[in-house]
């Protein structure tokens, strides 16, 4: 029997009669329903925020090192259930099993980092300009975080929000992507089993418009103090506008058009390997996926030849097996990808086999794609700076190639689309690498490595169309889930006035 899941609010299943139902489908076998999902109605999201708000005070009063111990338990529980969770991720969104295992590992890494933060959460002591007076700063939790996540990393990316938010003493209402609901629900259960008090973490399944309406109401009622969102730039703008009206600054992690620059002195085989992984890993459906390869014109033909061969030899197929990539995340992503394929123009050269859906007799693997959302890998050469393919994110297995003749031109081209998430350069010249780093507008830069695969304790995030400059992961995310409070303590026994009673030498 298909598993049935519903929202969990205040520790209890919320079988919202006003909502609709949704079927989460296995994209590798679209006839297979992974879970039936009960979606919440409009009032439910705001209600969950109220429940979280009521539970938050008590959670904030738990000493941070004790909260850190709960995070440690979450990490252990996730680790002990690695294979089960990874299998579910593979079945629900078609991510190759090896990548799904890596994704679960990323949650454990995140817990490993933050369990220790429970014993830090450092504030500062600050000198005063007056005698017999001490100044301090404290990190205080923001309150309730509403976390809205995409389904391409259905468990790791949510953990980047949930783990630090909880560690800092916040309560959370998490709204995962519907098409990844079963994976999210399984992760929720592991978090809950680690001993979080009821109401501190709540999961609400809802569609986009319902979530917006509920979030608007909750922000208005003052039961949400931070919104975290990972997803498209278009929806990020709407979240930003909504939060702006309520004087909130969200944590936004949006799309990317991530460039890879290949200099004349680059190790081309290494570059091909990097471009294969970041262009086609997760079927190109990472926010850090490679968008355009910018190759120096002296090595352009050589690179394109080797890249086309590597891509043509890659296996696409059943994500349970050893493949470079599997199907698209779900039907909507497949439809959108078909639109991106329409951006290929007559002046482009498609240097790899056919484009479009793989329906039967996949030449790259022993499987029949007819029942899955599989697409051929596409490499398009001759992409120009005004082309849609150059300027806009194409979430799927397609990579553009363009050429340049100086590093300055490469940097200019790399910045042109106006995103700014990840980037990479292949070179053996450290001067070129450092010049690229200082010229690029991206939040993340790799040298001789691909655009994707960030580690869980470095700042993760982007600029421009990739986000509002907020950063996740490591110590930097603490600034999202805490606010600074200053303490001004005068023990002089008299009224000392700042700026007016500055001590004289
Ligand atoms: C995303 O696609 O939203 O760096 C995140 C990477 C992964 C995370 C991607 N660790 O590619």
TrEMBL record:
Cite the GO molecular-function annotations of the record: aldehyde dehydrogenase (NAD+) activity
Residue ranges of the region described as Disordered: 1-23
Q: According to the lineage, what is the superkingdom?
A: Bacteria
Asked whether the keyword NAD is assigned, the reply is yes
- Enzyme category, top tier: oxidoreductase
Gene3D superfamilies in alphabetical order: Aldehyde Dehydrogenase, Chain A, domain 1, Aldehyde Dehydrogenase, Chain A, domain 2
- All copies of domain Aldehyde dehydrogenase, residue ranges: 18-486
**EC nos:** 1.2.1.3
Active-site residue numbers: 253
Give the record's keywords alphabetically: NAD, Oxidoreductase
Keyword Cell wall biogenesis/degradation in annotation: no
- A Pfam short name: Aldedh
Assembly and binders: Homotetramer.
Looking up PANTHER family in the UniProt record yields: ALPHA-AMINOADIPIC SEMIALDEHYDE DEHYDROGENASE
For this chain, the family text in UniProt reads:
Belongs to the aldehyde dehydrogenase family.
What name does this protein carry? aldehyde dehydrogenase (NAD(+))
């Amino acid at each position: 029997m298909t598993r049935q899941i519903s929202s969990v609010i205040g520790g209890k299943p919320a079988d919202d009669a006003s909502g609709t139902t949704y079927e989460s489908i296995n994209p590798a076998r679209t006839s297979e329903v992974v879970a039936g999902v009960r979606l919440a109605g409009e009032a439910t999201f705001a209600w969950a925020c109220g429940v979280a708000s009521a539970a938050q005070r008590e959670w904030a009063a738990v000493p941070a090192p004790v909260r850190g111990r709960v995070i440690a338990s979450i990490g252990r529980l996730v680790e002990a259930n690695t294979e089960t969770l990874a299998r579910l991720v593979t079945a629900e969104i078609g991510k190759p099993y090896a990548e799904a295992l890596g994704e679960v590992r990323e949650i454990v890494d995140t817990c490993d980092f933050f369990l220790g933060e429970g014993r830090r959460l450092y504030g500062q002591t600050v000198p005063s300009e007056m005698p017999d007076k001490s100044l301090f700063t404290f990190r205080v939790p923001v309150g309730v975080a509403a976390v809205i996540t995409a389904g391409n990393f259905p468990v790791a990316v949510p953990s980047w929000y949930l783990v630090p938010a909880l560690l800092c003493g916040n309560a959370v209402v998490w709204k995962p992507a519907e098409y990844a609901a079963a994976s999210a629900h399984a992760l929720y259960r592991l978090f809950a089993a680690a001993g979080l008090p009821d109401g501190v973490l709540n999961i609400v399944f809802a569609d986009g418009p319902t979530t917006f309406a509920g979030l608007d109401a909750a922000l208005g009622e003052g039961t949400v103090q931070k919104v975290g969102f990972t997803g498209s730039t278009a929806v990020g703008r709407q979240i930003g506008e909504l939060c702006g009206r309520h004087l909130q600054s969200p944590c936004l992690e949006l799309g990317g058009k991530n460039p890879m620059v290949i200099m004349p002195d680059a190790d081309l085989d290494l570059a091909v390997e990097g471009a294969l992984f970041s262009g086609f890993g997760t079927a190109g459906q990472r926010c850090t996926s490679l968008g355009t390869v910018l190759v120096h014109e002296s090595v352009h033909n050589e690179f394109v030849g080797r890249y086309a061969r590597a891509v043509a030899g890659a296996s696409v197929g059943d994500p349970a097996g050893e493949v470079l990539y599997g199907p698209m995340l779900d039907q909507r992503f497949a439809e959108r990808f078909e639109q991106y394929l329409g951006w290929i123009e007559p002046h482009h050269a498609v240097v790899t086999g056919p484009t479009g859906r793989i329906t039967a007799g996949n030449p790259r693997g022993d499987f029949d794609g007819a029942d899955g959302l599989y697409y051929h890998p596409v490499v398009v050469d001759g992409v120009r700076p005004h082309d849609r393919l150059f300027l806009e994110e194409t979430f799927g297995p397609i990579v553009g190639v363009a050429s340049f003749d100086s590093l300055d031109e490469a940097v200019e081209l790399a910045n042109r689309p106006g995103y700014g998430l990840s980037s990479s350069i292949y070179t053996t010249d450290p001067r070129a690498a450092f010049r690229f780093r200082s010229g690029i507008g991206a939040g993340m830069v790799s040298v001789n490595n691909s655009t994707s695969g960030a580690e869980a304790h470095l700042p993760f995030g982007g600029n421009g169309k990739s986000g509002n400059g907020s950063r996740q992961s490591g110590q930097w995310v603490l600034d999202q889930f805490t606010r600074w409070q200053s303490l001004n303590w005068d023990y002089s026994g008299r009224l000392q006035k700042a700026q007016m009673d500055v001590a004289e030498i």
